Amino acid sequence: MNASKLLTTIAAACMSFSVLAISLDDAKSQGLVGETATGYLGVIKGNSEVNKLVEEVNSKRKAKYQQLAKKNGISLSQVEVMAAKKTFAKTAPGHFVKVDGKWVRK
User: Fold this and answer.
1) pLDDT, tens digit, for every residue of 50-90?
2) How far apart are alpha carbons 56 and 19 in whole angstroms?
3) Which of 59, 65, 69, 87 pairs with 3 at a CA distance of 20 to 30 A?
4) Rounded-to-integer distance, Cα 59 and Cα 57, Å
5) Please, what is the angle between helix 48-72 and helix 3-15, to 10°?
6) DSSP assignment, residue 91?
7) Of 51, 61, 59, 56, which Cα lies nearest the Cα of 83?
């Protein structure tokens, strides 16, 4: 798989998870969660529902990242770094990203 296809697959995996009562888009819009430099979601303002959403999304992301790493002969950490770059780039204005340990609005 070439780098472009890999990044597209990573982006789709990062943006497509959640069937809980609160959607990922809603949680991001409400400032409850944000993207981190590790390729995973982080909790900004948590409650049980938000924590469950983040846990579910991150679990699915990790499984997909592991699959992509194995398929492309690269490490999990390499996929996580690529995923973080892709999700930061695709994060909508007004949503949060974690930069240097601090949550900031994009």
Assistant:
1) 999 999 999 999 999 999 999 999 999 999 999 999 999 99
2) 9
3) 59
4) 5
5) 160
6) P
7) 61
